[in-house]
What we know:
This protein is of the alpha+beta class.
Amino acid sequence: MNEFDSSKSMSQLPWFALQVRSRREAMVANHLEGQGFDCFLPLYKSTRRWSDRLKEVEQPLFPGYLFCRLNLSNRGPVLMTPGVQQIVGFGRTPVPVEERELESIRQVLSSGLPSLPWPYMHIGERVRVNYGSLVNLEGILVNFKGSNRVVLSVTLLQRSVALEIDLAWLSAIPQASTAASSRVLGRQATTIAVVGG
């Protein structure tokens, strides 16, 4: 098999996320690429302040992770690479990353628009408002016609009021505090649901 055939077959392999030692992402990616693996380490630029100056540095968009095309039947060399902790999956079963999700990330990075890591929030998750006059209000993240809104509901009346809000103002509430906050909200007539696009 010539080099062209080898690279063609490599591009047909699925992408997997590798969990690696923090701050070792670039070193691991270089090591794997040196072994012939196709790696993708998305980076973003951030400004760091030192006592005497500001400096722009590149950092991993997903700290502690990088992506690698590989054949699972030949995963030994990947797992033996210094800094690699595991192939991400469910339980002990590695699961490929959706190709279109990685293409979206590549597209964002090539656009030149500023990007940065962001906490993952999913529909149905409890969230808290962190800024503005609604600070500390809690609710459920839901999708409603592509716009972000906080829905305030009066349970007793079964009526709601919606107002727009920026998703950047929200953060996910850890599972442990969700039960406590639902007990508190359960005693009140007013609850909120956060509507996201």
